[in-house]
Amino acid sequence: MFNSSLKELTAALAARKISSVELTGLFLDRVEKRNGDLNAFITVDRERSLMQARAADSLIASGKAQPLTGIPVAHKDIFCAQGWLTTCGSKMLSNFVSPYDAHVISRFNDAGAVILGKTNMDEFAMGSSNETSFYGPVKNPWDRTRVPGGSSGGSAAAVAARMAPVATATDTGGSIRQPAALTGLTGLKPTYGLVSRYGMIAFASSLDQGGVLSRSAEDAAAVLNVMAGFDARDSTSIERPAEDYARDLDAPLAGLRIGVVKEHFGDGLAAGVGAAVQAALEQFRKLGATLIDISTPNSGLAVPAYYVIAPAEASSNLSRFDGVRYGYRAPEYRDLADLYSKTRAQGFGAEVKRRILIGAYVLSHGYYDAYYLKAQKIRRLIANDFAQAFTQCDVVVGPTSPTVAFPLGAKASDPVQMYLNDIYTIPANLAGLPGMSVPCGFADDGNGGSLPVGLHMVGNYFAEAKMLNVAHQYQRATDWHLRKPEGI
Amino acid sequence: MTGQMKNWEVVIGLETHAQLSTSSKIFSGASTAFGAAPNSHASAVDLALPGVLPVANRAAVDKAIRFGLAVNGNVADNINRRSVFARKNYFYPDLPKGYQISQLDLPIVKGGSITIITSSGEKTVRLTRAHLEEDAGKSLHEDFHGMSGIDLNRAGTPLLEIVSEPDMCSSEEAVAYAKALHGLVRWIDICDGNMQEGSFRCDANVSVRRPGDPLGTRREIKNLNSFRFLQQAIDYEVRWQIETLEDGGRIQQATVLFDPDTGETRSMRSKEDAHDYRYFPDPDLLPLCVGEDWIGAASKQLAEVGTPGMRKELYVAQFGLTDYDAALLTQSRETAAYFDVVVGAVGAASVKLCANWVTGELAGALNRAGLDIAQSPLPAARLAALVTRVVDGTLSSKLAKEVFEAAWNGEGEPDAIIEKRGLKQISDGGEIEKLVDDVLAGNAKQVEDYRAGKDKAFNSLVGQVMKASRGKANPAQVNEILKKKLGG
Questions:
Q1: Minimal Cα–Cα distance from B30 to chain A, Å?
Q2: What domains does chain A contain, in order, with CATH numbers?
Q3: Of the listed A49, A128, A151, A237, which one is catalytic?
Q4: Which domains does chain B have, with CATH numbers?
Q5: Which of A180, A474, B97, B486 has its CA 20 to 30 A from that of A199?
Q6: Nearest by Cα to B98 from A319, A408, A5, A107
Q7: Which tens digits make up the pLDDT trace of A73-130?
């Protein structure tokens, strides 16, 4: 049951081989058993989940089941869910019970899915290792001395450890795809604007996008079918006809043009990771695809531009956390200014403060043009690089992360090293393009073991169905995505 | 003003916040109604809960466009087809997001002008721009036992900030501008103009200089919510600046507040502790693009509601009124409507007389009573009945004033007053002849003087007849009959 696909679970529910209450209970038991070790969940609420499961069972009984009805789904704790503690991994929101549902949560609720719990994450989604969480680091189920990636580390560990069939996540610079790579999962960040940001606590508004961490492309398609859709409450949500993201899964890959970015195979890429990605490219060739060398000459500017734009937006987005209306408030303060400074000094962790400071600096008078405006220009150049690439190919492929999962604490004190984790994933966020990571093998972890490697894929705007098709065909030809951590 | 002002030039520019009369807020669906229980009109968006997003209110944009067209002769070249919402970042408890959404580099309206009338005639004041923004909430510092209360009902109320060029050179001009603007926004139905409720408030930028010198350093007087305060504040500020400079001091750029109790301005903050607002384009709101169809519809709407300027031109063309009279009659939609009723009843042949009554006697009485024309105790139909009696010769202009006074004081219909007080003008030739005969008989000396060529004596005789009739004799007839008798 724990290794079943969503299709299999849905079939089992429909055939009454299992009820949603039983299924949810099984996963909750597993969370109970494993969470102490992995720290993947911040909040579990058995009663609340089972209540939803009972409602799902009656939907199924009355023949009103939709895809995902009765399926337990873990949600990154960045999505506001009514009645649920919604912390965003921060002390600042450690007492915040959301009075409303995020659009994404409403979509799952409307589909009859069950909220299994809220998963751990880097504080306000700022991090690539899940070590900045106020609730402590998440451990990688493949090696508990290592990070699961971030910021959606809790969602990744939950799915990788089979504590949840599937999980939602968000991606601002790689926060879905990098954890997917590091935990052997399929991760999809859709086109910016495809999934509503309403109720998704903002880190960097122009980059944030909700998506999914799953065990296969097929599962990801089923989940995206529920998550995607226009929402008038998000001005950046895109109004377009609904589509079935699973419709092209079975299409053959013959004639597919895969762009390979030569800049992504240079310095900094671990040899084992590079080899696994090369082997995947070979596999695609066997499947009938053509490999085309392409260049994205401005990709080297992506990380610096990102670390101007994202902190700038974050510095402003996080201003609302002031201790006045909700959330953490310092117990003692002299006056208003002291209330603000003590609340924010105590409520935010070091990485969040670092980014607020960077953001405030790059937006300040006299620096705006040199930093923020210039970064926006680079952003345009990067989008142009992709536009150029997509005249030659259908998808762009490369490594997701330069290394396999690294040891806990290894990069925690070196922010720049940490930021370079997202060197391959950030360009898609800057351009607003959909990105995916798919398991493509294993590489030496430098310590005698081997750990999962992710293959990164970027598609053109709204090419999710095509990307899922490419990933699904690859997964039919390979079994990397079926591998699971020892002891799971 | 005082003689002290000799050799000084005063330069004034106004920034006016007009609350747009939409039923919901600029970025949320909450009501904008005034006077509700604290925080009862504050939605999740207004409270800046984690994860919420703004969505621009189309009606607010529509009103801003209408304003832009109205100050530019219904020509759309001052409407920015693409304007940008920006975040103005600062911390204050009544600013829930920690930033105000406003427009900086690209406002919706650029340019335009307002025509004002002062004692020295008409003048055009150029507008720099008008931009959309949201209002803040209200901090309440009483009744909370050492704490402050926050009411967010007003937070997110749509404002149009209208910025003038520094084209005014006296408090009289500034008040005339503010009144003209006030009349305009009410006329075109974008703002209720209620100054007590804060729907229309001005900031005045004031500086002084020696003629021929470059602009002096300005100080900004914030939040003036009556025309009287606007005048008092500017007058005080000008005197203070001139005195300071004449005493050898310097003006520091500052923001000041006007205290109506003392009639003085005092510095709130100097330039040194001015905020760095770290403006940047709001990534939650896409650039506001208005198409030609939208502008066309707004233009059509404006043509229907008209503007004071359009009505003024009509009065000049149709009635041959002077620019000055026409401008006075179009200060507000209510004034024009009042005038239209009077002219409609009295007849276009007497339009000048109607204009004189509305802009003279009536305006004076309203002014003394501190009333709006909409609150006039004398309805338009009654003034029309009175003017009709002047036109048909029933009342002399002197007696008409007495009737006006009585009607103003609620004594009822003019005809009834005339009847009751016996004020009817004597136009009966026989009756006047009798009066003239009596006067001539009793004033042999004057008759002799007149016949000896002393024209002055004639006037004296007229006066005697009028006196004898207790002012009721028709002066034209008296003249005529007297001349006839003396000449005979």
A1: 13
A2: 6-227 (3.90.1300.10)
A3: A151
A4: 3-289 (no CATH), 307-421 (no CATH), 429-487 (1.10.10.410)
A5: A180
A6: A319
A7: 999 999 999 999 999 999 999 999 999 999 999 999 999 999 999 999 999 999 999 9
